[in-house]
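Inputs:
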Amino acid sequence: MKKEHIQHLYWRAAFGINPKAMQSLLDKSRKSVVDLLFYESSNYIPLKIDTPEFDTLTFEEFNETKKIHRAYIEKSKLKVKELNHEWIHKMSFSNETLREKMTLFWANHFVCQDRFILYIQKFNNTLRQNALGNFKDFVKAISKEPTMIDYLDLKQNRKNKPNENFARELFELFTLGVGNYSENDIKESAKAFTGYNYNFEGDFVFNEKQHNYDFKHVFDKAGRYDGDDIIDIVLEQKQCARFICTKLYSYFVNSTLNQAHIEDMTDVFYSDYHIETVLKYMFTQDWFYSPEHIGTKIKSPVELIVGMSQIVPVTFKETEQVLGIQKMLGQILLYPPNVAGWKGGKNWIDSNTLMLRLKLPSALLSDGKIDTKVKGDFYDSFSKYYENRKGNTKIKAFIDWDIFKTNYEEVEIEDLNNYVLQSPINKGTLNYLNRLSKTSKLDYCVQLMSIPEYQMC
Amino acid sequence: MDRRKFIKNSSLASSLFLVPSFVNAFSQMVTSETGYKRLVIIQLSGGNDGLNTLVPFRNDDYYRARPTIGLKKEGLINLDNELGLHSSLRPLKDLYDQGYLTIINNVGYPNPNRSHFRATDIWQTASDSNQYLQTGWIGRYLDHFNQKPDAAIELDESLSLALKGDKLNGMAIKNPALLYKTTQDPYLKNVSKHYQDNHLNEHNLGYLYKTLIDTKSSARYIYETSKTYSSNIDYPKHDFSKQLKTTAQFINSGLNTKVYYASLTGFDTHIYQLNKHKRLLKVYADGMKAFVKDLQSKDSFKDTLILTFSEFGRRVNQNSGNGTDHGSANTLFVIGGDLKKPGVYNNLASLSDLDNNGDMKFEIDFRTIYATVLKKWLHVNDQVILNKSFEPLDFI
């Protein structure tokens, strides 16, 4: 498989790849490279942080007094932040890179938020466990997660007073997309999801007393349906497979859609709703490697942060800082803007986020400084700018330059851009880069990571 | 706008751009001489419950629909013996008494959408309910009237669709000093200087470069201009009032910007609505009070129009969780120092004659309000921006 294609596959299906790891893939076929990618992700290793104060907690202890309850919630909120930090770390260093990428994808599909650590951690692992599995099982599992039951008010969905929030988002965001259902389908389906609840341990509980056992009229069918039945009925519609495949295509291939390719994917996916099958199909098609797709996607903030670690491993030391960076870039994991999640693409970019994106690599890797020395130039023109800088908060992180040196040992400094960047370089910028005095591979790496082209994958 | 006025406006604007350090001396003149109109848009995100914001306290249907969350007459601020403001909105009553507030009821659009995401897009793009537009109405205002990105500023870390045009985007700015400082990095300055614009603009990468170049020039202008004014007014401690404070700083320093966009989130009150809603409305009203005072201190209030909307109202009937589900038509606030029809603009729609979903029927299309503001306040051709003709209202 060609170097450019391996890099493209790894940027889309994972978070990038370094030249050393790529070496053994160069003489393999596309199929075996893709197979290997799935093989490496066949393990499911849950993300777990230490939660000693919650592990043996009972409902009575948790709610002993209002004050105690509030204190637990505050502790829990800190733990959710810690989970965010550990998730970033897991994506950066896990061997199951495809599974982690898919977990990230699904987290922006089944969008949820929770301040109780055990439930949100459980939810996150349900995403991870089902990330490459069967979509039907996945949707059913999601509908029974305490975090989802809370987030979309399923607990308030009672026999005599239905709450439509979950039913609406199930159709609009999780399975069919806007315009493919009626208001009546929502009202009727909400009845089927009555009685959904969970116990303090986070296990799903079906409350028969609150369930509406009446007939429900949904999508030209009628029956005494429950929630799982509704999911079965919805997935019978090819539109559901099409909706998911459109989203996969838009995320992994290009936000400019090719309907013919999406229809082909839909046929594959509709046959058994197996996620792994449709992904494998997508990653092995010729069109997936078409030049118009390579290096043309704007990285999400998380792809940017995690992707940097594939070049120079970064271990953040302070949770608040990891969250702060995500906040400034416009994407805090576990804290979505709303139930529709992040829009992505150009939407990531505005004046502020772009400047921060360009400054982030140097802030992490070179104390905020980017060298501007050109060939034969001994005068440090940039030092003046940095002289006047007053105590910027330094990001506390462990930067493993040794790994970079090992992984990029075989790469000539003049060739470094072909490994760090996925996008062709603008002509003017390339001229400028060519004039720089490339004396250090490390400095040049930071310079490359500080141009707009590095924002692309 | 007539031609003479236009030339006067633009020549002043460009001289401001060239000599930012003299802005302080000019700013008074700009506001008083050219009557530089600004629009401030405030979005209450999540779907504000209009019926518990402006309460029809003489209507039995209201209390029947809301047995536990209906607001009692005694706690309300009486406006006209029919409608009462929520107790958190005392500052709005003061504006009402001074003729600075117009309340427009039953604002919506045909076939309302009840998804946050979609309804927000509809309001922000000014589309029909079944129409999907990729540009916002303020973004198209920038596009068509050839404004610079800094003509529209959102006081946030990210930019809403409302401010995204086809060729031009507005800017998202929370902290002008920080943005300026970042753009002064020597390496990044070199990169943006060397960039060659060879038909890359359509693509994502071209978009990044264009944003970089625009940001650099606008950040300098905004920073240099806005630092000439600092407010003496006490604002409540909340992110929302911080947005308003920065907006006032921009306006009072004479910044060329025409549209500001701020937002307050959390109005999605499906459960235990009462306390949460009370808190949110207080944040809104207390922020507005300080904001108006700040503008008045520099005499810029009369040239400022503040529009407050939410993506939808909420269901008339409360739900089982002591909250309300997504509804449709809603009440909209217009605040300004130069209103033609202050007070309650139109009667609240019936609470017994509801649509199939149990929601109030809309009377005024939200785009007639946009059209009014574009035509009568910003003095531009509203049809070009809205792609449709709407009969303007007469509140301004």
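Chain B has a mean pLDDT of 88. Flag for discussion at group meeting.
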